[in-house]
Amino acid sequence: MKESIKISQLFPVSAKRLYDAWLNSKEHSEFTGSKAEIKPRLGTDFTAGDGYISGHNVVLQPFSRIVQAWRTSDFPEAAIDSKLEILFEKVNGGTRLTLIHTQLPAGQVTEYEKGWKQYYLKPMKSYFKKS
Fold it and tell me: Which of 2, 51, 117, 121 is 20 to 30 A distant from 22 in Cα terms?
């Protein structure tokens, strides 16, 4: 059975700022603290987490939504790519970023939820405070 994660975080910056940073290799690397290669183009491949994460951009709706086929080197070899949907919602004082991560391999949801919080949301909160 596949499992899923849904988590949100508020950031004191615009949706455009978050969206652009997510799809920019230099900024993605800076806010996570690990190397990322990503482009803001539909269908392009990406890597993040020093190569631990890989996938490709499936949907790009500027400043509101990104959908990616997503996997890590910890996925079982036969596992299909998971689906990562990133939503950017304008709210009072900034943007609510929501990660909806579905089709994860069974038994791995807890590990990935911790990873999203530790390697993305926590460092992003610090990074975008400076912006």
Answer: 2
pLDDT at 3: 82
**Burial 79-102, CB ≥16 within 10 A → b, else e:** beebbbbbbbeeeeebbebebebe
Smallest Cα–Cα separation from 52: which of 11, 112, 6? 112
**What's the structural domain count of the chain?**
1
Supply the CATH number for residue 25's domain.
Answer: 3.30.530.20
Residue 24 sits at the vertex; the CA angle it makes with 14 and 117, to the nearest 5 degrees, is 70
Q: Which domain holds residue 62?
A: 3-130
Could you read off the pLDDT of 36-53 as tens digits, one per residue? 999 999 999 999 999 999
